[in-house]
Each structure stands twice: as structure tokens, then as C-alpha cells.
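Quick log. Single chain, no ligands specified.
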Amino acid sequence: MVAISHAVLFGMVASFSALVSADNCKPRLFYCGTTLLRKGNYYDQIEGALKASGQSTNDAHIHNGLFYCTGGPNGEITFQAFCGNGCVDGGNGKSDHC
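-> predicted structure:
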């Protein structure tokens, strides 16, 4: 019985840690798709922003798309440009760019 409660407790702590580690984008900064994916669970938002702008949702557009963070409770984003030659991570607290 003790082993079961330890397993349940460990599972709950691991789940909570995963939720805490996700981070929203900072408003008024530009982000590469790859940067957003590292930051948190942005796949669906990236795909939605690409579709709303009539862009392809292939891997190249997801990873090399440039998005603007408008903020909000979920770190909302809008598509800005596709970086055909690759998207560059500008560093912590700075905008990414093509």
C-alpha cells in the first residue's frame, strides 16, 4: 500500500512540474516557431496562426515562422513572416528575427 501511494505522489509531482515549466511568450516580442515550441505548448497556436494567415502548416513553416506575441492569459501569437533562410533566436528577452 505504501508503494502505491509513493507512486501516485511521484506521478502527481511529475505532472505538476511539467505544467509549471511551460512559459508564455512576452508581449511585444517576436518569436521563431522553434523558440515558442521550446518555451511551452505552442504547437496548436502556431498551427492556428499559420492557418489564419493562409500559410502552410508544414514543418518548415512551423519552425521557421516568425510570430508576434500579443500576450493575454495564454500568450497569444499572430503570424508575421516565413523566414525562408531560417529564423534566428535573438536571445532571452529580445525579439527573434529572420
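The radius of gyration is 17 Å.
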